[in-house]
Amino acid sequence: MHYMPKVMIADDIQMIRRALKIALINAGFTGIVEAKNGVEVVEHLKRDKFDLIVCDWEMPEMTGIETLRYVRQDDTHKDTPFVMVTSIADPENIRQAMMDGVTDYIVKPVKPDLFVGKIMFILRKLNNIKHQNQDTKTIKEWVIS
Predict the structure, then answer these.
(1) Which of 5, 56, 98, 137 is least surrounded by Cβ atoms within 10 Å, i.e. has the fewest?
(2) Is the omega angle on the peptide bond into residue 109 within 30 degrees of 0, that is, cis?
(3) pLDDT of residue 124
(4) For the chain, how big is the Rg over CA atoms in Å?
(5) How far is CA 13 from CA 43, 45, 65, 119, 141, in A?
(6) Which CATH class is domain 2-142?
């Protein structure tokens, strides 16, 4: 049985959401949902579960770091990989994100091949962990072209 990972992309700039989404689509992803701020991420998380969240730091209404903190405190989503993609390269912000449980931190501008490579690495690592923790008869394999 095959399963396509579901990815949430959150950024207040539509052009950046589109660029990240296109990079993932070109790599074979299909289960991609967009949000323009952390409030929308939370609304999506109340209705659905995602395998990975990609989030900008600087967004209106609810920032990326606030979104990360929400995700890490929510029992349903606390283990969901969370990648911060932001123009903030300040070491203090990176340290704060790491302390709050970010999975990876990518500084904009983003090179599509680097972005996709990191996403695939994270998802493959997560998939391997899931395989170790499940009965082999019920394992669903992720398919990413």
Answers:
(1) 137
(2) yes
(3) 87
(4) 15
(5) 19, 20, 17, 20, 33
(6) alpha beta
What is the reported pLDDT for 139? Answer: 39
Domain boundaries, the chain: 2-142
Separation CA 69–CA 64 (nearest Å): 9
pTM score, whole prediction: 0.86
Rounded CA-CA distance 135/28 in Å is 27
Show Cβ contacts of residue 141 under 8 Å, excluding neighbours closer than 6 positions: 1, 2, 3, 127
Largest CA distance in the chain: 46
- Whether the per-residue pLDDT at 26 is higher than 60: the answer is yes
Q: Is the pLDDT of residue 37 over 70?
A: yes
Handedness of CA 30, 35, 38, 42 (dihedral sign): negative
